Amino acid sequence: MTERTKPRIVAGIAEAQPATLRFAIDEAQQFDLELEIVHCAGYVNYATRVIDQIRFENWLEAAQHVLDEARVSVSREPDPPKTHYRMSDQPPIDEFLDVSDQAAEIVLGSDNPSWFSRVMNRTVSQTLAFTARCPVVVVPEQAPTPPWAHGVVVGIEGTRPEEHILRYAFEHADRSRTKLHVVHALPVDSWAGEVDAHEAAVAEALAGWSEKFPDVAVTRKFVLDEPARVCARATMSAELVVIGQPHGHQIPFGIDKPLSNALLQRACGPVAIVPDPLS
């Protein structure tokens, strides 16, 4: 793979978002990838540029300031990754869907009220969680930081192919030299036979992974509770919570809501949504 086509970590920065930037830098460093920081400044039409030059210059200055602040933050790193900075006039959804074809991962912030309110109405993060062709990590600015954050948590169903989810989770636990906690939630009214069947399915899904990643300690936990509530609690202390991209042809507000949209609304730490490369 040439340097030009090598996947990058792409960070979408709406404004000063230190937790988002910190996560993206760490990802680029841990996986030895280049970092691309993108600010979607919004579209200014040609007429505005000509007629209202002052307004256009203010828009350009504000957008450039966001990138300049990010540049300063990256430059303070002892060993910063090779970083590219880009301003886009595309809407965030269009921009990040386009780059998801080539990106290794997209990292987005989630706490700008004017921007994130649109995210929670199925714009940026919810749409990308459902349609992006690479993993998407949503990082709240109140995300826990070490030493409070510890371990990678992966939520699996055990009822569909989940190799892509487990590989992503194991790789991150391995690079972070931390434990991997596998959680599986079942309805509170599940009967004993169902629990046994799900335990067997999860055990089968995990078979062989410890041999591939012998340095990763794995714990398993079965919980009778709503999946989104279980994963949301995990975001209070985990370095990262990993789930699969909604599957099938349901819209994002359908049956897959508990492990995608509902979790993004409740999470207080980083959440990675991993697509199936074969879907």
Structural descriptors:
279 residues, alpha/beta, Rossmann fold, 2 domains, ten-stranded mixed β-sheet, 11 helices
Descriptive account of the structure:
Strand 1 (9-12), helix 1 and strand 2 (35-40) form a beta-alpha-beta unit. The chain has eleven helices and ten strands. The chain is 40% helix and 19% strand. The protein has a ten-stranded mixed β-sheet, with helices on both faces. The chain folds into two domains: 9-139, 3-Layer(aba) Sandwich (Rossmann fold); 152-274, Rossmann fold (3-Layer(aba) Sandwich). It has 279 residues and is of the alpha/beta class.
- Order of strands in the sheet with the most strands? 3-2-1-4-5-10-9-6-7-8
CATH architectural grouping of the largest domain: 3-Layer(aba) Sandwich
Largest sheet: 10 strands, mixed
Number of domains: 2
Helix and strand pattern: EHEHHEHEHHEEHEHHEHEHE
What is the count of DSSP helices, taking H or I runs of 4+ residues?
11
CATH topology of the largest domain: Rossmann fold
Query: CATH superfamily of the largest domain, called what?
Result: HUPs
Cα separation of the termini: 24 Å
* Helix proportion range: 40-55%
CATH class category of the largest domain? Alpha Beta
Give unreliable regions as ranges: 113-121, 249-258
Radius of gyration over all CA atoms, rounded: 20 Å
* Multimeric status of the protein: single chain
Overall geometry comes to: elongated
Secondary structure category: alpha/beta
